[in-house]
What we know:
Distance between the termini: 40 Å
Number of strands: 24
Low-confidence stretches: none
Structural class: mainly beta
Largest sheet: 11 strands, antiparallel
Radius of gyration: 24 Å
CATH superfamily of the largest domain: Jelly Rolls
CATH class of the largest domain: Mainly Beta
Number of domains: 3
Amino acid sequence: MKEIDKIKHIPQPMRKDGAGAPDFGPRDVLRDLENPNILVPPKTDSGLIPNLKFSFSDAHMQLNHGGWSREITIRDLPIAKTLAGVNMSLTPGGVRELHWHQQAEWSYMILGSARITSVDQKGRNFIADVGPGDLWYFPPGIPHSIQGLEEGCEFLLVFDDGHFSDLNTLSISDWFAHTPKDVLSANFGVSKKAFKHIPSKQVYIYQDEVPGSLDSQEIQSPYGTVPKSFKHRLLKQKPIVTPGGSVRIVDSSNFPISKAIAAALVEIKPGAMRELHWHPNNDEWQYYLTGQGRMTVFAGNGTARTFDYRAGDVGYVPFAFGHYIQNTGDETLWFLEMFKSDRFADVSLNQWIALTPHELVESNLHVDSELINRLRKEKWPVVK
């Protein structure tokens, strides 16, 4: 009650037009303050759309010596069938152990730095350091590891399967633990004593020393390094800049190895919005990095619903549903939008009707030259 007493204005489920009534029963006022457009939906909302929001703050936290992880899968957000996400942190020296997945892994470094390693099916290796704004991508079945450097790190992992769970991956410690020692001995050509102290179960994340320089850990493969880099410097990429913000698009056209996931890093300044649009290739999985915003999703047949988002939230938009994201705060809103696709694609509502015969638009929407004269033939992903 003390927290509620500090709130000067307690929101009520009442619209300015008189719809609704006060709620004097048990309630979570702090939650209502975070979701004003769910408590009081815009008049344009209609019908029911499944939940399109889940916060990492509500996800199970897996704590290990060396770091932590939490995930949002179809278990937490049932509508999210195409992609799942993991938020992970590693301490300085903390290791996400040697492992591999049946799914592709796409990652965005939020803060700090890490060293990633991998070897492909032809014995070509890859060792690199990644920092804030960098991406990495490992194709399905390709083994890899992640280790925090001097300041540790936090990052987002995205996988191309909504059912994916990072706690149910293929790990080297788990395989060793479930292989007879005489088989290990025969495979590696050493005595069984060499495996006396191997872990008895999956290690997952563990604490180690901060690794030395890249040069000190370099290993030359007789087959060379991977031909397509597993790393991409997204923040170093030239953005598409508009008066309302910016967009950096990354897919297989500029990050060739990323065949299963395409993405965009979107900046929306206060008072601006990601324009009305939709995606013609797949569902959209979102991760909010900073700020706060709202999104209305239009599903057709008179159905639309509005959600509020803030840093740490995941949003979702089903295939081809119309939507926008509006900055509702006083700081810049940054978020990632991701797709199970090799290419990024979107359709702009503004551009569509700008390139359609004006007489047809006027008769269809009952609008006049005020709108027609302001339409843009060029796409502006973010508008102010």
